């Protein structure tokens, strides 16, 4: 009997000790996490103020631009970690009962729960601290520079809301845009005879043409050059570039009030360009173009970098943290994401699955914002999640990666699960050209009836220069019919 009583007392004392330890862990960790969360939120606001002030000013110092770019990256990373922490905390209560099975004793359950969630809080706390330390260090580095920002002239009046800015302006790329602008506005000594060439390189659909068009649309650039001509490398295979200028419709033009007559030629290089072609183009341009004229070469190939007379401007895809900031701002607009934690969680999952796709991401973001309903969002995210899993299991690649590389992709239809949309190829065209009447998103997420056979569908209308329209060649297939054909074959 005494042995049974000792075992009982041992179990009770063990249970009390376990609960006491868990209570102390919770009491000691919660305030720390909340303190770090508050400090990080405050520091993010400070970083945002500095960055917003810098965006609206014409900064020509490359060292300052690099430091601001690093601060912007640290801010995006801090926002991402803070949002992830908040969404995890929101779901934590629902997960507690799923940590262990019911086969454990009461004391074992409580002990394991305490260890699991205390470890999780410790990990989150470390991430929050790292983000806070990194961002605080960056702010200290640029604190003195922030004072000098007021010495640079303003570019434009800032909109009152960031989502209005993103819907009409290029996201990020301030440093790259300023590098291109500095190249274009830089004046060589009068004795210099070199025709300056700037390569702009980067992977497909990263925003190279958008960056250059954005800079060329700047009033200072239009005032600096008498003519701005856009050509493709296909155009000068069999004729001199000067002949192309005579027949080319000018996309950007300033009347010849500029007595210097400077010309800017933007060459979109499809693939690589061999040395003979480049020598012919450069020689013809140098002979024909007035003094002070310049060339910008846009290409996906790194080999183009060696053709420049100055260091190439290289564009990369947005990081996961940067893309989340972009996507969240477009999705929620003027709404506060903190008031819709469940919807914010769904938006973050969608952004992760999109893997940095800009115009596909913008397309989905606007669709979610126009249908601001938790039930619709759950339906869309569930559909997109299963579609991604299926695409990886069948083709071994994520859907976003395939679309970004312009490979054939297989999309589903949310309202008709027995049908599949096969995207064969994607194109882009100017805003003046006629575009398809059917939108790809209306087929994927809506009930629009597609035509039979192959057809073209609109993917996205860009609201910023160069105002390209993106569309694809696709076909809708019946999965049952496709499966039956495979069996017979």
UniProtKB/TrEMBL annotation:
Pfam families: NB-ARC (PF00931), Rx_N (PF18052). It comes from the Eukaryota. Keywords: Leucine-rich repeat, Nucleotide-binding, Plant defense, Repeat. The keyword Glycoprotein does not apply. Residues 21-99 form the Disease resistance N-terminal domain. One of its GO terms (biological process) is defense response. Residues 192-334 form the NB-ARC domain. Gene3D superfamilies: P-loop containing nucleotide triphosphate hydrolases. One of its GO terms (molecular function) is nucleotide binding. Belongs to the disease resistance NB-LRR family. PANTHER family: NB-ARC DOMAIN-CONTAINING PROTEIN (PTHR33377:SF23), OS10G0134700 PROTEIN-RELATED (PTHR33377). This is NB-ARC domain-containing protein. It comes from Urochloa decumbens.
